[in-house]
Design goal:
2 domains, 7 strands, seven-stranded mixed sheet, Beta Polymerase, domain 2
Length: 354
């Protein structure tokens, strides 16, 4: 199930820029992966110490340095020392509840986003905090755990497909953001299938579990909306930015991914409307089902009402009741019972109540 970040009381009272990891407690070992490239060559390696990243601080090549495991606060602090990153930026890197935003620090630009994908059995939404720092000739990315939605970008870098190897670090940052936005469509496609299943279930076999499933899907859509909505502001700020780190050649690509973000938001709103409709269908189906049950019970009670009257009348045991001494009284009573039952059933059938 999706993890909803909340404010952690451990930060209460601490000065701004204090490095506190606010995500889930993790025990995985942090790892650093580097891809350094230009139009003619590419090198890829794992490094252990952040200090080894100093060799990639040049503008002759583009370096993508990725840290898996921001729970390792010391590693994040070392990145700050090596690349001279402001403590407030590092604080945002560690704040898993941070909303998507962009901050221009002059020598570098910080992006915080939400990486969304479905779990292995495609049943639950997984949300991961993702931070990106764009500098001169390098891109730093920070993830909570290993595994992401960027494998296609790595393959394009390795094979030299497209224009990515001929562009700068800003284009790489754009590609990473674009891949995240595209992954939202995959998530929404999966959630849309679940919404359709819930609609069918609400119409054909409504149950109490249907309400729980609708509530779960609604919570996940709300989280997707909260993650996607600030992307409009982030991408609009990127497009209007005068920072030398973002070239003018990037503007058309930013407008394109901005449109994708708008489509994501529109799709989320549509799915939320469908879920609201599914809830109404469920309530109507349950109400109709209850009405059918009540109708059957009412008809049964109505049929047995004259039977109860007859048996109650002749069960009073008064001495002066002529029918009690009648030879055919028992058969007559049974005849009345049967005729009243059949008559009521025929009447209900004629009125099309059954």
């Amino acid at each position: 199930m999706v993890f909803y970040p909340k404010y952690d009381s451990r930060k209460a009272g601490l000065p701004p820029g204090s490095l506190v990891y606010l995500g889930k407690k993790r025990s995985e070992k942090a790892s650093i992966h580097v891809i350094d490239y230009d139009s003619n060559h590419l090198s890829e390696r794992e490094i252990v110490h952040c200090a080894d990243c100093r060799g990639y601080m040049n503008e002759n090549t583009v370096s993508w340095i990725n840290l898996d495991g921001i729970h390792d606060i010391e590693k994040v602090r070392e990145f700050g020392e090596v690349f001279n990153i402001h403590p407030l930026a590092l604080e945002d890197v560690l704040s898993t509840g941070q909303r998507p935003k962009i901050e221009d620090y002059g020598d570098y630009i910080l992006f915080t986003l939400k990486m969304l994908y479905m779990d292995d059995d495609n049943s639950d939404l997984v949300a991961e905090h993702f931070a990106l720092i764009l500098g001169k000739g390098f891109v730093l990315s920070f993830q909570e755990v290993e595994g992401d939605v960027f494998e296609t970008i790595r393959e394009r870098l390795r094979t030299g497909a497209g224009r990515i190897r001929n562009m700068g670090a800003d284009y790489l940052a754009y590609c990473l953001i674009d891949a995240m936005v595209d992954s939202y469509f995959v998530v929404l496609e999966s959630l849309g299938e679940h919404v359709e299943d819930v609609q069918d279930e609400a119409l054909e076999k409504p149950a109490s579990s249907t309400v729980a499933e609708i509530h779960r899907l609604r919570q996940e859509l709300i989280f997707v909306r909260k993650s996607a909505w600030p992307l409009r502001e982030l991408l609009s700020t990127m497009e209007k930015s005068e920072s030398p780190l973002l070239s003018r050649k990037l503007k058309p690509f930013l407008r394109d991914v901005y449109e994708h973000a708008i489509q994501v938001i529109d799709t989320v709103e549509s799915l939320r409307d469908l879920l609201s409709g599914a809830m109404e269908i469920h309530m109507s189906s349950m109400s109709n089902r209850m009405n059918e049950i009540m109708k059957v019970l009412t008809l049964i009670s109505t049929i047995f009402l004259p039977l109860t009257f007859i048996t109650g009348l002749y069960g009073m045991n008064f001495e002066h009741m002529p029918e009690l001494k009648w030879h055919y009284g028992y058969a007559w009573a049974w005849g009345c019972l049967l005729l009243s039952s059949i008559g009521m059933a025929v009447y209900f059938r004629g009125r099309k109540w059954v």
